[in-house]
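Long-time lurker, first post.

We've been arguing in lab meeting about whether S-adenosylmethionine would sit comfortably in this protein at all. Half the group thinks yes, half thinks no, and nobody has a model to point at. So I'm putting the question to the forum: if I give you the sequence and the SMILES, can you give me back a predicted structure of the complex? Inputs are below. Any interpretation is welcome too.
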Amino acid sequence: MLATSRAIATNQHGPHKDVARRVERALSHPLRKPVAAHTREAFERARAWYERDGGRRPLILDAGCGVGLSTRQLAACFDDHLVIGVDRSADRLSREHGEVGDNALLVRADLVDFWRLALAAGWQPSRHYLLYPNPYPKSAHLKQRWHGHPVLPVILALGGRLELRSNWRLYVEEFALALEQVTGVAAAVEACIPGEQYLTPFERKYHLSGQSLWCLVADLPHAPQLVPGGAEEVG
Ligand SMILES: C[S@@+](CC[C@H](N)C(=O)[O-])C[C@H]1O[C@@H](n2cnc3c(N)ncnc32)[C@H](O)[C@@H]1O
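Top reply:
Settle the argument with this. Predicted structure of the protein with S-adenosylmethionine, as tokens:
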């Protein structure tokens, strides 16, 4: 089946000139947004599930998991890990895509809050996936991209093997710049060649539409000290 996803349309010709300024701001201004009650409750349920065996199994976070196909696949691939897929869309999460394995959990929550609660709880995912995040391709929307968002230090502070995939090369390039600014880790932006099985529906859609896919992988230490105001302080 051919897909017809439109290529990214942007008014940018290179990495946004304000990436460094946004990152500097995120590193120096504590994120004061109060945690929504529904995400706090969702996090507590996820925490009870994750910590039921004393937190002995390594954790994988699938951030912005959509319908959760990637969560299911990661759980099958890493069957000695626990995989938590998080998305704010109840509609996407409720679509029928088959059994979720015993070692996987789908959670409806706002990532901006979920990540902060996870860091405050001392979670240290061994792997962390950001698969095809919303690109927000207009230059005015830089602050909505994860690397332009005040939550960036929290994402990076969690540590582990962070993998970002996107059909927009500039998104990955900008993320790499922000990553290096925060952590000193230089990550290469590489072409992403899907394996026999697509990891996500967006990956499938973009690839079948003839679009190039890009990715970045970085091994990061757990580094709560990156978060201004402290990782413990969650509104
Ligand atoms: C472009 S879709 C990609 C979904 C999936 N990873 C895939 O590749 O098929 C981006 C997803 O991120 C989710 N998302 C965006 N911002 C979010 C937030 N603040 N909290 C939780 N989920 C969010 C959206 O609901 C959406 O499902």
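For your lab meeting: The chain has a mean pLDDT of 95. The first helix runs from residue 19 to 28. Whichever side wins, do check it experimentally.
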